[in-house]
Design brief:
The complex is a heterodimer of chains A (305) and B (237).
Chain A lengths: L1 H31 L6 H18 L9 H28 L8 H21 L7 E2 L8 E4 L2 E4 H23 L1 H11 L1 H6 L4 H27 L1 E2 L3 H16 L4 H21 L7 H15 L14
Chain B lengths: L2 E12 L2 E12 L3 E5 L6 H8 L7 E6 L2 E2 L5 H4 L4 E4 L11 H8 L8 H11 L1 H5 L10 H13 L5 E5 L7 H16 L3 E6 L2 H7 L2 E6 L2 E6 L1 H6 L1 H7 L4
Parallel strand pairs in B: 3-8, 3-9, 6-7, 7-8
Antiparallel strand pairs in B: 1-2, 1-4, 4-5, 9-10
The chains are: A mainly alpha (305), B alpha/beta (237).
Chain lengths: 305, 237
């Protein structure tokens, strides 16, 4: 029983992390129908950006004062993620805006490999995993049999808060309306005066900012990062987005928590253990796609005239 | 009277297929001008090109004294030219209110709320259902919302593409009455219709388009009386 509760708690932390990344996948897909396979790497460079900020920018005297260093590290990580996403949109995807859909998809895979190799080769000592500082309250929250590191609690809190903030922004603000209009009917959105380039750039920026936050909090939680982390977690996040209904904000968050829970529970209880957790995640995905191809919260059909 | 919109020798092609060939017409400020013609004549293509959604292969479009044929689509509305597209093209998963707010997307002034009330006065059914999703509405209600949305930008020229399509005769009459009313309030109208009789009866000037070319033009009432128009579009021998 206590193992089950502990794994449920671990699953929620995993889900919170995956949600922050899944939101980027689902938003970009909603606007330009591109599965941005390089989005996992936007998360990864966020972690390295955070580490670089901690190593070279945060002054020695405040490195151990988490409430000073964490905000600086977060800003550094987010800045790197956003910068990379902007470059990627401008130079890799925008020139292919009117190309057949397969072209940007393959480009996304290329960008993904490029970013992994670039960081591995040019970040000092990144050929191996690097230690990441615990820039938050150390120790664990203990509730009965459950123990969760405070940095895990932080991850859950930040993820829930940012998801709600994003949902509110998209539903209430003028630019949020422009984003939804472009997602539903790009031509008619232009007739309303909505500049599609601005909407697309904003979408990449929002997704990248969330991924950057996720990168830094991931490092803080696990205390070690490597250049494959984006690929691995990116697969989970992509699956979560599809599971929830790609294009749906709520779907991405719900899908992420489902994936997080399936991953930890399958790792504990299914034959093969953690080595086979991928298998069970994809079993869940396949089942959902067979019985509800649009995902849990997806729209069954695209815009009608 | 001066020309608010002037289209000169406009040609548009989809790949190798020329949909519009050397169309020319003029819309005077304050007028209702209609383009009539059968299905596939190039009317919708012409409007989409004026809006910047399509690029012409030749010719010129001058609006309010400025050439606009190489402007990106999203800048056209800001210059005062609104397009209410064929099939209404509302944002189906947004509410009435959100659709109207998007119509006013380019406006920076604070009169948006008041203009939204005006739309609700013009079409009370929209006001009653302002928080409902547009995709659930009937064809007539959708057309009202589409017109209301286009008016939210306070355009100088409103282009309406097949506003009567799929509507009951009563609803069609209501929509045409509304168009007349908008003209009275000072909006210039460019109307594309298959319902030639109703469109010409309303129009100060009409152009007949056939196979991508302008074949006839004249004041609405004269075209209505023209034998060739009656034979081709009003089903008379």
């Amino acid at each position: 029983m206590s193992t089950l509760l502990q794994q449920l708690a671990n699953g929620v932390v995993q889900g919170a992390l995956i949600a922050l990344i899944a939101l980027g996948y689902t938003m970009v897909y909603g606007i330009i129908q591109l599965i941005n396979f390089a989005h996992g790497e936007v998360f990864m460079v966020g972690a390295y950006g955070g580490l670089a900020t901690y190593t070279w920018i945060v002054p020695e005297s405040v490195k151990d004062v988490w409430y000073v260093s964490l905000p600086i590290v977060l800003v550094g990580g987010v800045a790197v993620s956003v910068a990379i996403a902007l470059l990627m949109e401008r130079f890799a995807y925008r020139p292919l805006r009117n190309a057949p859909r397969l072209a940007p998809l393959i480009t996304a895979l290329g960008v993904s490999v490029f970013l992994q190799e670039f960081v591995r080769n040019f970040y000092p000592n990144a050929t191996a995993a690097l230690p990441f500082p615990g820039v938050f309250v150390q120790g664990q929250l203990v509730i009965g049999p459950i123990r969760v590191g405070w940095s895990g609690i932080l991850l859950i809190g930040v993820s829930v808060l940012l998801s709600i903030a994003l949902q509110t922004y998209i539903n209430r603000s003028r630019m949020g309306r422009a984003m939804r209009a472009t997602a539903q009917d790009p031509d008619t959105a232009k007739l309303m005066g909505v500049n599609p380039d601005r909407v697309i750039v904003l979408t990449f920026v929002l997704g990248a900012a969330l991924a950057g936050v996720a990168g830094v909090l991931f490092g803080t939680y696990l205390n070690n990062i490597n250049t494959d982390m984006g690929f691995q977690t990116g697969i989970f996040a992509f699956t979560a987005a599809v599971l929830g209904g790609v294009g749906s904000i709520r779907g991405a968050v719900v899908g992420a928590f489902i994936i997080g829970l399936v991953k930890t529970l399958a790792g504990q209880y299914m034959p093969g253990g953690t080595q086979y957790d991928y298998v069970w995640i994809f079993v869940v995905l396949i089942l959902v796609l067979v019985f509800r191809p649009q995902g849990l919260f997806g729209e069954p059909e695209r815009v009608r005239a | 009277m001066s020309a608010l919109l002037e289209v000169r020798d406009l040609s548009v092609a989809y790949g190798a297929i020329e949909a519009v060939r050397d169309i020319s017409f003029t819309v005077e400020a304050g007028h209702i001008v209609s383009l009539i013609g059968s299905n596939g004549a190039g009317k919708t293509t012409t409007l989409r090109t004026i809006s910047g959604l399509l690029r012409p292969t030749g010719g010129e479009i001058v609006f309010d004294g400025k050439p606009i044929h190489d402007q990106p689509a999203h800048t056209i509305l800001g210059s005062g030219l609104a397009h209410c597209p064929e099939g209404r093209r509302l944002f189906p998963r947004m509410t009435v209110e959100e659709n109207l707010q998007l119509g006013a997307y380019v406006r920076k002034d604070d009169g948006v709320e008041a203009d939204m009330q005006n739309v609700y006065e013009l079409f009370p059914v929209l006001g009653e259902r302002r928080h409902n999703k547009a995709g659930l509405f009937s064809g007539g209600e959708q057309q009202m919302l589409a017109i209301g949305r286009a008016m939210m930008s306070k355009p100088k020229l409103l282009m309406l593409d097949e506003p009567s399509m799929g509507l009951s005769p009563i609803m069609t009459q209501l929509i045409f009455d509304t168009i007349k009313e908008l003209q009275k309030q000072g909006t210039t109208i460019l109307l594309v219709e298959q319902n030639a009789l109703a469109a010409l009866a309303l129009s100060d000037h009409g152009y007949v388009i056939d196979l991508g070319q302008t074949t006839l033009d004249g004041p609405g009432h004269e075209l209505l009386a023209d034998e060739r128009v009656r034979a081709a579009y009003l089903g008379e021998d």
